[in-house]
Amino acid sequence: MIPVVDKPTIQYVVEEAVEAGIEEILIVVSSGKDAIKDHFRTHAELEALLDKKGKTDALECIQALSGLARIQYANQLEMKGLGDAVLCAKEFAGQDPVAILLGDTIIRSKSGQSALQSMVRIHDKHGGSVIALRKMPRSRISQYGVVSGKEFGEGIIEIDHLVEKPLAEKAPSLLAVSARYIVTPRIFEFLENTKPGFGGEIQITDALNALAAEERMFGFQFEGSRLDIGNKLEFIKSNLLMGLERADIRDDLMTFLKELV
Fold first, then answer.
1. Contact by Cβ (8 Å): 210, 192
2. pLDDT tens, residue by residue, 201-259
3. In angstroms, how far is CA 18 from the centroid of its own chain?
4. For residues 32 and 48, what is the distance between their CA atoms, to the nearest angstrom?
């Protein structure tokens, strides 16, 4: 819920999903995260007040927000890792493939399509699971999950193995897993059979490795920015990047940045 410019981070993530054609969304929350639910629900009293005062622009923003998608919620009873959080979506997913988007990370692609839109296209064309990848410097690669595989064409890697936070000198590549996944429903079977690791957490990397051993898995290397709001520098960068996308403040912000240098 940390705001970037004037919207909470998770709103950018939900809008990205909607832009990629996703109509049903499950947000996995922990206890006490009612602010997320309140943000996306209908606010009848506020809408009536804005209408009465003739604040049509604000009214349209509020109405658009509650109508973005059909949003449901699932509670993660204990903080047992990303794999456990994804497992909370088993009943929601049923027998359909699902997209997983980390709610604290904004992705901005340099191409005309978002990374998730490109991933949907790859899944529709080739089937299997698809993971967003971004090339990282070796000095930072040990902070991420990393893939190994072979070139498939069209900027796609066919993945054969994933390693969680490898030592820099032992990393199988410089392609880091980047907060966006499309997975087939068999992921839930493997998550249920994944034993907790360090800190009692269920690592999604373990389940993805098991899935890759039995089904095709692709990696899409996107050109653009991955902005992790939990990182102070990335948070500052995200405000600058999102601000430059806003027509109402772009010119003044650019003037300010030029004055700094």
1. no
2. 898 999 999 999 999 999 999 988 899 998 899 999 999 999 999 999 999 999 999 99
3. 12
4. 28
Mean pLDDT of the residues in the chain: 88
Structure tokens at 44: 């009848």
SS3 category, 178: strand
Q: Which residues contact 242 (CB under 8 A, 6 or more apart)?
A: 4, 5, 12, 106
Map residue 143 onto helix, strand or coil.
helix
Q: Are 128 and 215 in contact (CB under 8 A)?
A: yes
End-to-end CA distance of the chain: 32
* CA–CA distance, 222 with 134 (Å, rounded to integer): 6
Q: Show the DSSP H helices in the chain as ranges.
A: 9-19, 34-40, 44-52, 56-66, 82-87, 90-93, 115-126, 186-192, 204-212, 232-244, 250-260
Q: Kindly report the pTM of this predicted structure.
A: 0.88
